[in-house]
Design a protein that fits this description.
Radius of gyration of chain A: 42 Å
Shape of chain A: elongated
Shape of chain B: globular
CATH superfamily of chain B: Response regulator
Helix content of chain A: 10-25%
Order of helices and strands of chain B: EHEHEHEHEH
Structural class of chain A: alpha/beta
Distance between the termini of chain B: 20 Å
Number of strands of chain B: 5
Largest interface: A-B, 13 and 15 residues
Number of domains of chain B: 1
Oligomer: heterodimer
Helix content of chain B: 40-55%
Distance between the termini of chain A: 107 Å
Number of helices of chain B: 5
Number of strands of chain A: 40
Number of helices of chain A: 4
CATH architecture of chain B: 3-Layer(aba) Sandwich
Largest sheet of chain A: 24 strands, mixed
């Protein structure tokens, strides 16, 4: 609301806007130009507490001059408030490719291929970060600058609001406002909190909503894994629900409370132990122990240590076991062909074969590099910088290959020693062995042709003959209860 | 320990990074010339610099002088094909702590790095 005071004697008045945002001088026709002066107007303004500085006096002088030149009523703004500059709110800006709130924002996202087909399986919506990675920038709020009204009052600036995001201890903010991961893990943003979690937790299914998972750490899946998806983790994987025809690659231990129904398309690779409800049509390699709560059906499995299937059956497929086997039942009433391979170390054999394949290739590379090194060194006096760098590269390659070959030789020796001691035959069957269960151990190849009731044990005697021991304590050669067949059969 | 490899050759940077990784130095930053290195050193704050001599934009010796003028004491190993004595002396005068002539073996570079760091650690 404007406040006006008229100077009756001179026909001039001052009006202030309600919030003192501006001051006006009003001159009426009653004002005698001879009486009008800067001093008069300045004094009038001061009576209203308006600050009269040099700029205001200059404006007043112009008004006086103008009125004297042309005696017409007038109204002029002579002072204006300096507005407050309000503070800016804080900003939390995700670094490019690190916004977990934006679906499929990860750099793992596959680009459309030439034919514009997008692999939706690979459109993971999880972002993994390494320690030291900048994931966002945090700008703090600013206070702003206070303003001043025409009577000298302070117009308070409104400070900016801080960012309403909590930053977990797994991240730090440096002096430049860079938000940096302190640990390797999964970048998560939930309920206004940002953190890096060493465990990737999938609340429901691994499906098109998550894409394939490839995580440096452990993965916990609350539901299951859908057909054709891939879950890779450098550490443990725990799945509470069913794994369908999916691929699981686990650097640690694997636990799946329900089981895997792989429909011949699923694959399981476990570096540690596996504990699974059931396995159906799975191709798998488990380097540690495998524990099965129910049954193994039509699987092709290689197990680096023991297999425990205490309450279930092994039906169909081929199961190679380095350690011992304990199961309730082998085979089925339907006389499903079921192959068990024991007495060897299949994983070690595979590794040894791989080394036998790799070593000659590395040796040949090494010879080639040494030859090139010799050629280049022979003309060293005349060679330029590029050749010197090539020589350095060759030195490095040669050094790498020599080390690889040495490591391979040591590994071969170790594997051969382990193979000599690892492969064993130790089978314990609690209930039944059905016909068409085949059993291989070394050069021996047996097929059961009739139902044999347990409990029973099969193992080598001291002369490495395969023996069948029944629950009543009777022991006889395995060939008495199963037909020995040539290995090719 | 943070190591910055400054070389215009990507192959050389890869080799040096690989050797450093084998020696257990996993925090490695790369720069492709002296100018690039000067913009990166402040943020990376290295403990050791492996610097090539001949590079475009800003060569290694100019970089070393500029870097030392800024007051940095970080260890610098010149890794270069420049093998004349005068060059070595020039580099040492500019503030280089050690010198490796290309071609080098991984073992030699490893030894020089370890020697350099050991000397710095034992310095008062």
């Amino acid at each position: 609301m404007a406040k006006t005071q008229e100077q009756d004697d001179f026909g001039v008045s001052v009006r202030l806007e309600g919030s003192a945002s501006e001051a006006r001088v009003i001159i009426t026709e009653r004002c005698d130009p001879a009486n009008l002066s800067v001093q008069l107007l300045g004094g009038l303004l001061r009576q209203h507490d308006v600050e009269v500085g040099k700029a205001v006096e200059e404006r007043l002088a112009k008004i006086v001059e103008a009125y004297r030149a042309d005696r017409k009523p007038r109204e002029d703004i002579v002072a204006k408030a300096t507005p407050a500059v309000h503070g800016k709110d804080g900003v939390f800006a995700w670094a490019t490719g690190f916004d977990p709130t934006s679906a499929h924002s990860t750099d793992k996202k596959k680009e459309a291929s030439d034919d514009d087909a997008v692999d939706f399986y690979n459109q993971s919506s999880y972002i993994t970060v390494g320690a030291g990675t900048q994931i966002a920038t945090l700008r703090p709020p600013t206070d702003g600058t206070d303003g001043r009204d025409v009577v000298g009052g302070v117009i308070k600036a409104r400070p900016g609001k801080p960012v309403d995001i909590k930053i977990d201890a797994s991240l730090r903010v440096d002096e430049k406002g860079c938000v940096i991961a302190e640990i390797d893990g999964l970048l998560q943003f939930h309920r206004a909190e940002v953190k890096v979690s060493p465990v990737l937790e999938v609340a429901e299914f691994v499906d098109f909503s998550t894409g394939n998972i490839d995580f440096d750490g452990s993965v916990l899946i609350r539901q299951g894994v859908r057909d054709r998806f891939v879950v890779k983790a450098t550490r443990d994987i725990i799945v509470h629900g069913l794994v369908e025809a999916a691929t699981i690659v686990c650097g640690g231990n694997f636990e799946c409370r329900r089981g895997i129904a792989a429909k011949d398309r699923g694959q399981l690779v476990v570096e540690g132990d596996a504990d699974v409800g059931f396995l159906n049509n799975v191709r798998g390699e488990i380097k540690g122990h495998l524990t099965i709560r129910r049954e193994i059906i039509n699987c092709d499995l290689v197990i680096g240590q023991d297999l425990r299937c205490d309450r279930g059956a092994i039906i169909g497929g081929t199961t190679s076991i380095t350690g011992s086997l304990r199961a309730m039942t082998l085979g089925s009433e339907a006389e499903t062909e079921t192959v068990l391979v024991l007495g060897s170390a299949p994983l070690l054999t595979a590794r040894l074969n791989q080394l036998k394949k790799d070593c000659p290739v590395w040796q040949e590379q090494l010879e080639r590099f040494r030859y090139e090194q010799k050629q280049l060194s022979a003309g060293r006096g005349a060679v330029g910088e590029q050749q010197q760098e090539r020589l350095t590269a060759l030195n490095s390659e040669i050094s790498d290959l020599e080390r690889k070959l040495q490591d391979a030789q040591e590994e071969r020796t170790r594997i051969e020693q382990e193979m000599a001691t690892q492969g064993k035959v130790e089978i314990q069957i609690e209930k039944i062995i059905y016909p068409k269960v085949r059993f291989r151990a070394g050069d021996a190849n047996f097929i059961f042709t009739e139902v044999l009731k347990g409990p029973a044990k099969i193992g080598w005697n001291e002369r490495k003959q395969l023996m069948f021991r029944q629950g009543d304590g009777s022991v006889r050669p395995l060939r008495d209860v199963a037909q020995e067949r040539p290995l090719a059969a | 320990m943070r190591v910055m490899v400054i070389d215009d050759s990507k192959t050389m940077r890869n080799i040096e990074r690989s050797i450093l990784n084998q020696l257990g130095y996993t925090e490695v930053e790369e720069a492709c010339n002296g100018q690039d290195a000067l913009t990166k050193v402040a943020a990376f704050n290295p403990d050791l610099l492996l610097v090539d001599w001949n590079m475009p934009n800003m060569d290694g010796i100019t970089f070393v002088k500029a870097y030392r003028e800024q007051g940095h004491k970080t260890a610098i190993i010149m890794v270069t094909t420049e093998n004349e004595k005068t060059r070595v002396i020039e580099a040492i005068k500019a503030g280089v702590n050690n010198y490796v002539v290309k071609p080098f073996t991984p073992e030699l570079l490893g030894e020089r790095i370890n020697d350099t760091m050991a000397k710095l650690e034992s310095a008062p």
